[in-house]
């Protein structure tokens, strides 16, 4: 859809420098934006590029405005958080693309499921008995929604999502293709070397405004529920074990794994492929670097890291061999300390003996 | 379904302290269990919680019985392995929930497939020519079973499993949503910088009582088969390369990766995100800690570990810089040893010279 | 299909030692090959096994020919790269197994999609409006192809692939089951602790001869495209973030993760579970070892490694504790150096003082 700069400022605030009637049809990056596009300046280091942009309008921060305005002739929206402003603008411009309500004739919707008339259900979908799909939800092709599962208002399942029995997700969620919500947790009792499955009868309970990435898996709880609070953002190929609890507005990058019964705080971030052991607790505002294994609970906010530094293979072979032999190195240091002390007493004694 | 304590003890053994006619309808955790529930005491540290439980009955170990019985008024089943007993009880109580036999009208079952009349096939399923689905199997919505594949008795595929041509799985298996069994192995011949695909014509051959997690992938063999023996338990998002052989009753936690042609023994365990290099051999009863890369064969049973210890980011930056410079540190120690030796000879010589 | 040795040599070159009319029906490994099979010798260390093979013919390198020929009585094709020759032979022998053209009646193909008459579309497939499926493509059961997506000539999607709107893949590609191409990139603006989604409107643009493994995910670009050049081979469960650029003929093993906006050169290789940080650049001909995190750009070709060496758990506990205390170790070495220097001056001074 098309909008005017005036409408954007009415909706999202910011200070407009320019004509409110300028029409905006699309978003574009600084270097590709043309006379119907709006773009944004995310970092001050891009000022020169912004100044040369042919965008109809730029969203930028107060500290960048003067320098950009000196050579850029288009309109500007000045705001404290240009990236967030751009995000809202982009959502607004692109928001009208929702598919029409209705159920595709190839979908298998159980007569005992409750589907709001405003819902879109694509081809090859399966909705089981007792499931509830609330107003404005979009269930794309090939998705599976199990018995008595609940999909909240305006939540969007992309193609081929599996959302299992009795699990629930709140409003405005996004679940990407191939995600599996509510598979059984990995729970077994060992008896003489053989594993006996513990039935997994808890649910996955997901709050509002949660995004779940492609091929991410969230297991149902064993007896209690797995819980994902409001505003959590999970990237692709993340694994969340049974009975985990992820606090609100925590974000995890791709390939993160969280073992069962981990309790993670609010406003945490996890870099790609970070791993969290089971049955540990992580406080609010903890930030884990990519590739780091969190083996124990973390009680203090802050940034934590633990990965082996990359090097040329030859250098790594040397350093890895030395890491294995750190014990020997320590013994040598102790021996040196002892020998030195002996020598010092000897030396110190000498003058008196002399 | 509902049962009586007497029936549980008849089926699973254990010593009953209490009335065999007490009715049990469900399992529940210690703190939530009520007068129709059975619960269990998994660790002695939970004795106090067990003593306060309002469960109709508790499953517990002999060493915990006296203390719990002192204040807990319900019935007790005393057994050496309460967790395994609980698992069997839970399976028994929940076991009757199998869907009715029959093929959903939206399923595409090739006329040349052989499907036992007791099998349940859900909506949107595809079964290709020559596939064999044995008695009591359940194939949920959206699954794909390829040509001449074999699904054993009472095996359950959750929604959206891909089980490719000629692969086989035995009895009582569980394959969770999004798992892909029998995709091509990653085999290429390089010729002047360009990769030429090696056709992958082996199968995946899976034993009885194997569980495979959501979005886990097991590749077919190149010429020979990939083999997963009886009782293996694979969690979610595990990758098993072509021509691997996983020994019976080995268990792997989420996100583990096993490269091609690795041979893994029986009764091994792998923590989350452990990685195994290709063409290596791991003995029986080897236990790999989470986040550990197994670069070479392991011949001795035991626990093996290798991950960089987590620290605050500032501490990690210091330690990682030192890890890179361990060579320099070793040189300094050597120089110290040499200098000290020189000094010792000097010092030792002095008194005689004095 | 069956062929003759003469036809293989005509097609793929090599020097034939033996009767060109010998019939070949299949490929097989050295030890299982029989009188209708062709096999190959990939490494000189397998010479003895090759010499005992009962294959009708062997493909082998000049340096192995004399020794093998001494005891092996079958025909030989001598070529500089036996593995590549074997790959081409295997493809040729197995190549005729393409399914018949046509659209399965259960598929939901939008009337506004353009599907070449030579295309095979399996059961339960969804093809959306404006999609273009070119000649000879095979779309297996349960796949989803979004609006205006393009699938190139002779490209094969295995069951349950999700290929999203406007993404394109070239000719002769293979996409394995569960792969998700064109899911949204993980882009959010943070505003007062809450994440605001950045709409992801770029595409995924994939070249010719690209293979994508099972459950691998490639995100669409934010504003620009994610690009995968010709001949790239991605194994299973790989995650490629938005706006990445993967150079031609680069290969990645299973479980690799590449964060957003990483630029990776041509002819690179990545071992399993290697991870690449976002916004970095990796030169051509860089080889990353399994389990290694690439935290910064790499400008020089070569092999790079960084993983913690595995050890028995007890040894690891000692070495990991010492890694954490490397700072203390360094201080001790400094103190030793200082004390030694003091001692040396003292010792040196003594004789003069004596």
Automatic annotation (TrEMBL), chains A, B, C:
This is UDP-3-O-acylglucosamine N-acyltransferase. It comes from the Bacteria. The active site is at residue 242. It catalyses: a UDP-3-O-[(3R)-3-hydroxyacyl]-alpha-D-glucosamine + a (3R)-hydroxyacyl-[ACP] = a UDP-2-N,3-O-bis[(3R)-3-hydroxyacyl]-alpha-D-glucosamine + holo-[ACP] + H(+). It comes from Massilia norwichensis. Pathway: Bacterial outer membrane biogenesis; LPS lipid A biosynthesis. Belongs to the transferase hexapeptide repeat family. LpxD subfamily. Gene3D superfamilies: Hexapeptide repeat proteins, MurE/MurF, N-terminal domain. InterPro entries: LpxD, Trimer_LpxA-like_sf, UDP_GlcNAc_AcTrfase_non-rep. Keywords: Acyltransferase, Lipid A biosynthesis, Lipid biosynthesis, Lipid metabolism, Repeat, Transferase. Catalyzes the N-acylation of UDP-3-O-acylglucosamine using 3-hydroxyacyl-ACP as the acyl donor. Is involved in the biosynthesis of lipid A, a phosphorylated glycolipid that anchors the lipopolysaccharide to the outer membrane of the cell. Homotrimer. Pfam families: LpxD. The lineage of its organism: Bacteria, Pseudomonadati, Pseudomonadota, Betaproteobacteria, Burkholderiales. Its EC number is 2.3.1.191. Residues 21-92 form the UDP-3-O-[3-hydroxymyristoyl] glucosamine N-acyltransferase non-repeat region domain. GO terms for molecular function: UDP-3-O-[(3R)-3-hydroxyacyl]-glucosamine N-acyltransferase activity. It is an enzyme of class 2 (transferase).
